[in-house]
Amino acid sequence: MVLNLKNPQVETRDQRLGTITQWDGRADQLVRDSVFTYGCSKGCDNGGRRLCEQSSPFQQASMCAEHIAVTNATIIQESVVVQHSPIGCAASQSFTARYYRDLAARRGWKLEDPKSICTNLGEQDMVFGGVERLEQTIRDAFERHDPRVIFVATSCATGIIGDDVDGAAKRVEDEIGIPVVTLHCEGFKSKHWSSGWDVIEHGILRRLVPHAPQRQPDLINVIHLGGPDVFSPLLNPLGLRVNLVMGGNTLERLAQMSEAAATVTMCFVLSYLATGLEQEFGVPEVKAPLPYGLDATDNWLRDIARLTGTEDKVEAGIASERARIAPELARLRKALKGKRGFVAAGAAFAHGLLADLRELGVDVDSAFSFHHDPTTDSGDSQQDSLGHLVDVWGDVPNYTVSPDQHFQAHAALQRARPDFVICRHSGTMAVLAGRMGIPVLPIFYSNDGLGYEGLLTIGRAILRVLPRKRFYDDVAAHSSFPYQPWWLAETDPYAAIAEPA
Amino acid sequence: MLSPVTDNLDASGAFCSSPGAIEQVRYGCSLGALASVIAIPGAVPITHCGPGCATKQFHALSGINAYQGGEFHVPSSNLGNQEVIFGGADRLDELIRSTLKVMQADLFVVQSGCIPGLVGDDVGSVVRSYQKQGVPIVFAETSGYRGNNFTGHETVIRAIIDQFVDVNDAPLQHGLVNVWSLLPYQNPFWRGDLTEIKRILEGVGLEVNILFGPSSAGVEEWRAIQRAQFNLVLSPWLGLATAAHLEDLYGQPFLHVPTIPIGAKATSAFLRQVVDFAGLDRARAEAFIAQEEKEHYVYLRDFASFYAGCTSQYRLPSTAIVVSESAYNLAVASFLVEQLGLNPGPMVISENPPADFRETIQKSYRALADGAGAEAVFEQDGHRIHELIRQTDLTGEVPIVFGSTWEAALADEIGAPLVEIGYPCTDEVVLSRAYVGYRGALALIERTYTTVVRASTMG
């Protein structure tokens, strides 16, 4: 599959990958259906079932691509983001500012608020268009903050009224002499918010990565969702330097992506960028399954070593890391023995956490994934993270795909009745689990579960939240959800909604 | 063309629509009024909008704003390409039908966002068909480009009054009041504040439809709106449109008190004003006031030893800078200036109040402490707000900032402590804390001077 970087609008993941957001069944069935539909290089026999998305007439508020694209543009240093939208889309500014300041504290950056301005379109602009206001706001952003790049994000409203955002960006860019990068992220265009990752990565690839790079053979790009650098301790022993990108970075880091020896992506949901770097600049993408669990981490390091010519160092590093964590891992496995876990996260990230839990000896037969990509941009079957999970760790009998729908999560938890939940996107799932009397570990920084140390990080964090059952049980006994009794008892997330009210 | 960032006057003159580009956003859009629906016990919003709209509004107004929590499992049509092209009325119909099967509520409020407004969905007729079947459901047009969550709040209230509250011949109940005051969730302290307002009004002999929050009886209070003797608008402007509408509908009179009282002086004066207006038993009211004041002034007496004794040790502030929406701005500024004896610094009102009310609001500031020199500035863009504060001459003064998270960096820059009182408020966890009335004033003093002491002792 070839990524089209000529068009300022990224092709949505729904179109490129056949992404679905609604499904329920056995994980091994989802793997077989996906592979049958989107191409199998393993010669598997699946009985000929194509991937078939489920649906529900009832839906609850979800998230949109604009949120992801704008957040991840805003946390790029020395940038200003102009949200070309009515004021509501910019409500996320306060969250993004909090996120940026927390990242800055953890990563040692200057503590300051990130810069974003909303054009604050009104009804009049809906009628006459908002292009003039956009152009002036871009100029003002430049005057106010002297940024090195300005991102312009679209909204549902500007998409519908048809403002020529690219034209405006180009005109002001010619005036002010810094890149003005458009992000076409109208929320209605994709059924899943993770398309926002594609939007920002598309913008970066098109505009912020220079051609004709000089190779840095010891530099490896690490594309992650955000958080502390847990990668240098893994890769420095191989003599490699980490170029940590996405989740907040400098423009220099983005620019030198094309100079790196290889790219690894810590969640294949974000792999548009890695695939693009390979396609446009010949930087090879490490396709080995993600380093969740001991064996996967070993193999991931070996694959990196192979691509970077550092095989001589890798086995010693693996042995010493395994030895280092062994006593603590044994303690955690003992403490977690017999516990039943439940994972709720986005696709590849969920698959990683499932592997971690199983490596830690936790029983986990239920998972809740916010979407499902039947394939990846590389099309390489090594990146079939769910298939890999099922091959290595066995099936997940109750595997639900749902875009963070509260009512479906409730049913899934009623079915699973776990001892704890580990989740991402804490908005719906964390509080739901807590209020059902289930201790919950929300993962804000998604690097927590990676590599050898990640097993310890996750295991210890689970043990820290288990005693909170005392609090959650108390709250659960004294609060309820406004669902009809039949739904409160329902254990099938996709049960037909036909009962009388 | 005038710069939309440098020209803060909305050329369109439209009601709270767009005052130009905004950096450091301080309110949500009309759809954000879904928070007001969630604030009514027993009510559930149904949002007809894009997939991220409702979540973004509620996460901003509640999740990251003092971590208020709240019942967020809002049905949403999550509009996509298909509805943008072919219209979304059918999808909304399907959503409402399935919502009634899955959820239970005393009242559903359908709110539309930008997309249905732009593609022209006839949401009203979809909702009316359910109303005809007796479903407790109303429709409020809250397209994001039509205003902010303040105006959206009044739109939602109006929808409930017009489409849900029956006009009937229920007898008027003397001593029952409907209270229209702080904007739920936008103000992080609304729950505690409304509870305190209800408590003191009950103290002087009223029965109170507080309408929002944990101390409200929920939808049944809304049904009782018509029976009330009068409406109390306790804010500079928000709620006035509602009160005027209720006056038209039911002939209900309203009392408008722009300044929410903080502290004994202001609260007692406020209660006496209410008692006079409503013709309540004065002796009973005075007994309540006396009891409240007795307790209150014991605490103020004790606080005086800190206030007097630690003035130089902890560099107690002398000038208050207030950046907030108008209701809290005026309330907090009045308390600090008139009751604690601080000098008024810049008072920046950040929610873009309708032009008609600005002069009246300004008069309230000019009247503070016999003309202490207070002056309101109306500005919603963070960059310009901070420039204005930087340019203020504070020679010889020790400033303190009452504002939002956006003021944190500015407060550091000018060497002032920051007390977060408004949206966005990311560094406070707030549950039942109140800052108004008798009890709230003490909490505000505690928070303020704890912040001051910590700034002094911990750098």
What attributes does this structure have?
heterodimer, A: 501 residues, alpha/beta, Rossmann fold, six-stranded mixed sheet, four-stranded parallel sheet, 13 strands, 12% strand, B: 459 residues, five-stranded parallel sheet, disordered N terminus, Hydrogenase (chain B), oxidoreductase activity (chain B), ChlB/BchB/BchZ (chain B), Nase/OxRdtase_comp1 (chain B), oxidoreductase activity (chain A)
Question: What does this protein look like?
Answer:
The complex is a heterodimer of chains A (501) and B (459). Chain A is α/β, with parallel strands linked by helices. Among the domains of chain A are: 65-184, Rossmann fold, CATH 3.40.50.1980; 216-312, Rossmann fold (3-Layer(aba) Sandwich), CATH 3.40.50. Chain A is built from 21 helices and 13 strands. In chain A, the strands form 3 sheets. A 6-stranded mixed β-sheet of chain A has the order 1-11-10-9-12-13, with helices on both faces. In chain A, helix 13 runs antiparallel to helix 14 (311-336) and helix 17 crosses helix 18. Chain A is globular, with a radius of gyration of 23 Å. Chain B is an alpha/beta fold and 459 residues long. In chain B, the strands form 3 sheets. A 5-stranded parallel β-sheet of chain B has the order 11-10-9-12-13, with helices on both faces. In chain B, strands 6-5-7-8 form a 4-stranded parallel β-sheet, with helices on both faces. In chain B, helix 14 (355-366) links the parallel strand 10 (343-349) and strand 11. In chain B, helix 7 packs parallel to helix 10 (240-250), helix 8 runs antiparallel to helix 17 (437-457) and helix 11 (264-278) packs antiparallel against helix 12 (282-309). Chain B is globular, with a radius of gyration of 22 Å. The chains are: A alpha/beta (501), B alpha/beta (459). The interface between A and B is large, with 73 and 84 residues.
